[in-house]
Every structure is written in C-alpha cells, then in structure tokens.
Write a structure and sequence with these properties.
Elements: E1 15-17, E2 21-25, H1 28-37, H2 41-56, E3 66-71, E4 76-85, E5 90-97, H3 106-119, E6 126-130, H4 136-144, E7 148-153, E8 158-163
Parallel strand pairs: 5-6
Antiparallel strand pairs: 1-2, 2-3, 3-4, 4-5, 6-8, 7-8
Helix pairs in contact: 1-2, 3-4
Length: 164
C-alpha cells in the first residue's frame, strides 16, 4: 500500500454536522483500517480506489476520501464519498448506511448535508449520483435531497443530478 510521508500528508480535517450526525473525512490511517477489515470484496475495492484517489490527487483529498457517518453519540452508521472532482465542475456522491440503521432518515440527513457542503465549494456546479434500478429507497433519498433524474443510465443504473 502506498503511503504519503507523514510530513507531506494532504489530509484535510473536515467535519460536517447536522442535528443528529457527525460526518467527517477519514484520515489515511482510518481508510487503511477500513480496507483491512472490509469483508465485502466490492466495498473493499471501492475503498481501495478512494484511498488511491486521495494519494494520486492530494490537492483534492476531500473529493476522494471516505466520509464516515456517525450519530453524535459516536455510533457508526455508514459512510459516503465523492468520486473525485471533474473538470466540468461536477462531483458524484455515493453513500451507504449499515443495514441495522436504515429506514431512520440517516441517509437523507447525511446526503443532504454533504450535498449542501459540496455545492458551496469553489468550482462545484452540480452533484450527481446513480442507483441500481431497483433501489427505490436510495432513489427516494435522492429525491428528498432535491435530485432529479437526468435521463441517463450509468454503470449502476439511473443517474440523478442536483444543482445549486
């Protein structure tokens, strides 16, 4: 695993808070631990790609990092990430809430807060997301957060977009 030297780490300590949640950018060490303990091969690969994006683009660390979603009491709920910063000003968000905590509005609260933060960042013109066609719960989260269908299908399914 490639690591940045300690003196040149580009990690950004960033936290977004809502009424119930604390959403924070993981450190490089936290990301490595998450990869090491992940048993789902698809998530492990995604986490590895996020870490590699951070290492390859340290100036855009916050657009590749895993953002950890916790309740304010410190209980882990899930995570989200942006999938890089594109030249056209778009960023794509992905998210997941642990099964035991689904259906309680945490995804909507976290996604909305992250999208609001993203749209306030310089150069960001829109946030995009895609869901599997049968993932109605995720599509509902996006609708509640002001996303609209773009009419385009991505690798995972229908794409949605949110602008300022």
């Amino acid at each position: 695993m490639c690591r940045l030297p300690a003196e040149s780490k580009m990690e950004k300590q960033m936290t977004i808070e809502t009424t119930r949640l604390k959403i924070y950018a993981a450190s490089q060490d936290e990301m490595i631990r998450m990869i090491d303990v992940q048993t789902d091969d698809i998530l492990r690969k995604a986490y590895q790609e996020m870490l590699q994006g951070c290492l390859d683009h340290p100036e855009h660390w916050l657009w590749y990092v895993i953002w950890i979603i916790e309740r304010k009491d410190g209980s882990h709920l899930g995570d989200l990430s942006f999938k890089g910063f594109n030249d056209d000003g778009s960023v794509e968000i992905g998210y997941g809430i642990d099964e035991a905590h689904q259906g309680q509005g945490y995804a909507t609260e976290a996604v909305n807060a992250a999208v609001m933060w993203a749209l306030q960042q310089p150069g960001v013109t829109r946030v995009e997301a895609e869901t599997e066609p049968d993932n109605k719960a995720s599509q509902r989260v996006l609708e509640k957060c002001g996303f609209i269908p773009s009419g385009i299908d991505g690798e995972e399914g229908p794409r949605f977009v949110r602008t300022r």
